[in-house]
Design a protein that fits this description.
InterPro entries: SDH (IPR005631), SDH_sf (IPR036714), SdhE_FAD_assembly_factor (IPR050531). This protein has 4 helices and no strands. By secondary structure, it is an all-alpha fold.
Length: 65
């Protein structure tokens, strides 16, 4: 899904370098989620069951365009 890719790429480009190792691990876990579940989480329809990945989704969604 291109829109999802754009969100994740923007975070990688702007935030990866200064992210903690813990945040990088959470991001890797996030990538293991199914695209449709991620997209629903980004749209706010259905939060992810893991609180850490959900918080990262919210942070990624807040990265300015």
């Amino acid at each position: 899904m291109r829109e999802l890719d754009q969100l994740l790429e923007r975070w990688l480009e702007r935030c990866w370098q200064e992210s903690s190792d813990a945040d990088k691990d959470v991001f890797r876990r996030l990538l293991a989620a199914e695209d449709d579940k991620l997209w629903r989480a980004f749209l706010g329809y259905e939060p992810l069951p893991d609180a850490d990945t959900q918080r990262l989704v919210e942070r990624i969604a807040a990265v300015p365009h």
